[in-house]
Amino acid sequence: MSFEHYLQRGTQKLRMGFTTGSCAALAAKAAAQMLFTGERVEAVRIMTPKGLPVEAQVLDIELAADYVRCAVQKDAGDDPDVTDGVLVYAELRKTDRPGVHIDGGNGVGRVSRPGLDQPIGAAAINRVPRQMISKEVQAICERHDYKGGLEVTISIPQGARLARRTFNARLGIEGGISVLGTSGIVEPRSAQALIDCIGVELRVLAAEGYRGVMFTPGNYGRAFIAAHPSLAQATVPTVNCSNFIGDSLDLAVACGFKQILLVGHIGKFVKLAGGIMNTHSSVADCRMELLAVHAALAGAERNTVAELMDAISTDGSIEILDEHGLRKTVFHSLLQRIQAHLENRVGDAIEIGALLFSNLHGFLGQTETAADLIASFR
Asked: Which domain, by its residues, includes 121?
């Protein structure tokens, strides 16, 4: 039973899927129907918060006298999701305690740090999936005029193994994966999913009392930080921001961070000098244009500017700048513009700075504010 809704991403037509939260709600609805009727349910359908219906087969049914347990298989569509294909189970039992009580079982993580969607000790089943489960189960209770309560246990037997392939342990979710989703739908290669993950990490860190943070786009930055003595000794956390510089800064400000240092490769961070806050090449790729403009401002001759425009990499452009004795002046100019755009993004109340490096040439320069930030982080 396939979920046939699509998104156009450039020239690609990508099939959407549905979240673990939708799976949990589907399985809980099917289990509730079977609990009250005693008859097997082969397929189940819900309406997601996004307004798209989802229908799925009901699998691995256990129909007992005092409980019902069944599963729905996660379908991530064309998204490279580690949970694609896993079975999400719901087990329902009647209880004298009024209301619908939702908990996590095998393979669903537990919250161990403050700042997440659920309190410490609770199952990592987020707010919207809990609402979806409650809505579907309560509707079945009303249909059968049932006034008692129900205990709903969501489990994902493969969850503990899959959790090792996620950031859950770092975020403070132990023993399994999270039951997630705000729309009920998985959009393939969703940038928002990455931004949401950054937001979760920042909220956790803020709840632990951190007010300073270093951002870096990925592994190159982390390796540079580890090898740079003053950065490696920093007592503030490092958060991967991927290409989402602007969104990460906005989230950090919203979480109450007061000191932010960005550490990044010149190939990405030169774009900040143009005010470009999403550094993915599909959004903007004006690396050579920015280097050429700042070289021209530094007095470069026309032929040198043309060489920079034709350079195939930022490392190659640095070699051109070195040939003409322009590196120091150009990077001073670039860093001034980077600082101006960063300050404009976060406002006056935040101390912010940036440090640039190259894998080939090492440290390239830093904004005037960076030295003080690094000193305060040690």
From this structure: 6-186
Residue 330 token pair: 């150009």
Q: Is residue 364 part of a domain?
A: yes
Would you say the pTM of this structure is higher than 0.85? no
C-alpha 18/C-alpha 75 separation (Å) is 6
To which residue do tokens 């009024």 refer?
Answer: 98
Residue 146 buriedness (CB in 10 A; 0-12 / 13-18 / 19+): middle
Token pair for 46: 């819900």
**What gap in Å lies between CA 367 and CA 265, rounded to an integer?**
14
Q: Yes or no: say if 274 and 290 are a contact pair by the CB < 8 Å rule.
A: yes
- Say if residues 28 and 92 touch (Cβ distance below 8 Å): yes
- Structure token digits, residue 326: 């322009």
118-167: pLDDT as tens digits: 999 999 999 999 999 999 999 999 999 999 999 999 999 999 999 998 87
Establish if 1 belongs to a structural domain.
Answer: no
Q: Which two tokens stand for residue 360?
A: 């080939």
How far apart (Å, rounded) are the C-alpha atoms in residues 123 and 260?
32
* DSSP H or E segment with residue 361: none
Question: Are 182 and 197 part of one and the same domain?
Answer: no
